[in-house]
Design a protein that fits this description.
The complex is a heterodimer of chains A (423) and B (128). With 423 residues, chain A is mainly alpha-helical. Among the domains of chain A are: 91 residues; 85 residues, no CATH class; 77 residues, Serine Threonine Protein Phosphatase 5, Tetratricopeptide repeat (Alpha Horseshoe), CATH 1.25.40. Chain A is built from 20 helices and two strands. In chain A, strands 1-2 form a two-stranded antiparallel sheet. Chain B has 128 residues and is an alpha+beta fold. Chain B has a single domain, classed as Alpha-Beta Plaits, CATH 3.30.70. Classes of the chains: A mainly alpha (423), B alpha+beta (128).
């Protein structure tokens, strides 16, 4: 599936269809054959056939259906050739009698596949799998990313990522992790696990331009979850949260450096994404079943609503953080609430609130960066410098370290405190 | 139907959190008895047991012409299997639901691991 020339539309479209149809096709095949590896191999074979055939014969009207039918026939062939397969083949006899379509262009329409994908995402994000494995499986099986792409996104070698996937698939098969939508009683917890995997994928792409594609993948998965579970307000909340964060991405950096919310050029915010995110947040408010993702989305919505930093409705933001803290009493939520409090009550109140979580978050650079910002507003330059230095020491990314070094050098100079004037 | 090993681990040198009073002990035993009765009634219980301390273990290895015997256990580890159940369950979620109940009854961590009963190898051979 290499792009031979820009004019080679067939190859380009096969790639696009691959990305879009992969998750659907694998999910359907897993349902039919109950085996992830067999399903993946068969779907890959089908794409090889497609990339051979479509450029000359044209893309069939329902590419995903064509891929699924071709892959299913491939899988049946594979099963017929092995003894174990023959037994399995008899178990699923109904499938074998289905007429053979593709490989010719005479394919039949597949039924709705959405339930298959939903079942598969609950398998991939089963809490009995470790979180790195959940993420890798979700990107591979539902996101259609290849092993090399996933490996690069998580800064591990392709061999290590391949091993991770093999291990996770082994556990699914050996331990018989079920392939179904969890029962009502388990659903909230299992859904949380799915949503957190998607949000982790988004955040992994959030602060690194090299990995920006992960954000697109996460939003695509988020949209699929909303389509598959229209009655789950938290799925909608996660999608809105990602869309509204994404809307502000273009203004978050200038010349490779981080730009604080206060200084962002708001004309760079993506209005189409903001409108879409706002519409979802409003629908969530009407539904009135608040949850952590919806509240975080609502906080983003308030930021996106403001024409400038100073006209932001900070009281509303603090109120939303209070609500969020009651549902999710974590130190990180308390940290964010303290920063918002700095805008309503001033830096001293913020510092007091930060002190309350200081022991929990001593190893987290953003705690010290927030303290630095508040101390700076109080014109306590030495203490602010010390806090920024500690933050820089703990920061994990080069972008963060550069930003913090910038703050420290501003503090060392004169008259550079205009960005954060003392109150 | 699949089978799973639910094993409890003990930590060497740590006194297991034995129920403090005879009455607590009785309650503990009753919880386990009730759970096992429930496992029996649902066709879940296959086999279960308790292991003696690893100090009682002996290890045998293939040597040069003969078998070499040493004082055990095989793996020098702080944690060792103390007891187990083999249960029938449809899938991992069903096994985990039973594991939940075991943890609630014994108040001790357990490991859930898929188990494949092979029976006698001769029974597994083609044409058996």
């Amino acid at each position: 599936m290499t792009r031979t020339a820009p004019a080679d539309r067939g190859a380009i479209n096969v790639e696009r269809v691959f990305r879009e149809a992969y998750g659907q096709a694998v999910a359907t095949l897993v349902r039919v054959f109950g085996d992830v590896t067999l399903a993946e191999d068969a779907v890959q074979d089908a794409f090889v056939v497609a990339s051979d055939r479509w450029p000359t014969h044209g893309i069939p009207p329902n590419p995903a259906g064509w891929i699924i039918t071709t892959a299913r026939n491939r899988a049946i062939d594979v099963l017929r050739r092995s003894a174990r397969g023959r037994a399995l083949h008899e178990e699923i006899g109904a499938v074998a009698t289905t007429s053979r379509g593709p490989d010719t262009d005479d394919w039949e329409e597949e039924g709705p596949v959405s339930d298959d994908q939903l079942r598969l995402i609950f398998t991939c994000c089963h809490p009995a799998l470790r979180i790195e494995h959940q993420v890798a499986l979700t990107l591979r099986l539902l996101g259609g990313l290849n092993v090399d792409e996933i490996a690069r996104s998580f800064l591990v070698s392709e061999a290590a990522m391949a091993k991770r996937l093999v291990r996770a698939k082994y556990k699914i098969k050996a331990a018989k992790i079920p392939y179904r939508i969890p029962a009502e009683a388990e659903l909230p917890e299992r859904l949380r696990s799915v949503l957190s995997v998607v949000y982790l994928i988004y955040n992994t792409g959030a602060d690194d331009p090299e990995r920006a594609a992960l954000r697109r993948d996460a939003i695509r998965l988020g949209r699929a979850l909303v389509a598959l579970m229209p009655d789950e307000p938290e799925a909608a909340g996660l999608l809105a949260l990602m869309l509204l964060s994404e809307a502000r991405m273009p203004a978050r950096r200038a010349e490779g450096a981080l730009v604080l919310l206060r200084a962002q050029d708001r004309t760079k915010w993506d209005q189409a994404l903001i409108e879409e995110g706002h519409a979802i947040v409003r629908a969530c408010i009407r539904r009135d079943r608040p949850g952590p993702y919806q509240l975080q989305a609502a906080i983003q919505a308030v930021h996106c609503d403001a024409a400038s930093f100073d006209t932001t409705d900070w009281h509303q933001i603090v109120a939303l953080y209070d609500h969020l803290l009651s549902l999710m009493p974590t130190p990180v939520v308390a940290l964010n609430r303290a920063i918002a409090l700095g805008e309503t009550e001033g830096p001293e109140a913020a510092l007091t609130a930060l002190d309350a979580v200081a022991s929990d978050l001593d190893g987290y650079h953003l705690l010290h960066a927030a303290r630095g910002a508040m101390l700076r507003r109080l014109d306590q330059r030495d203490a602010a410098t010390a806090a920024y230095e500690r933050a820089a020491h703990l920061a994990a990314t080069e972008t963060d370290r550069r930003f913090l070094a910038q703050q420290i050098s501003e503090l060392a100079g004169n008259g550079a405190l205009t960005e954060h004037p003392p109150d | 139907m699949s089978q799973y090993l639910l094993s409890t681990y003990a930590v060497a040198g740590e006194v297991p959190d034995a129920p403090p009073t005879p009455q607590d002990m009785q309650l503990f035993m009753q919880r386990v008895i009730d759970l096992e009765a429930e496992m029996d009634a649902t066709g879940t219980f296959v086999f279960g047991g308790r292991l003696y301390d690893p100090d009682a273990a002996t290890v045998l290895r293939p040597g040069d012409g003969d078998v070499i015997m040493t004082d055990g256990p095989f793996a020098e580890s702080k944690e060792h299997v103390a007891g187990f159940y083999i249960i029938n369950a449809d899938d991992l979620d069903a096994a985990l639901a039973w594991a939940d109940k075991v943890v609630a009854a014994i108040n001790h961590p357990i490991e859930v691991r898929p188990f494949q009963a092979t029976g006698r190898v001769a029974d597994q051979m083609p044409g058996a």
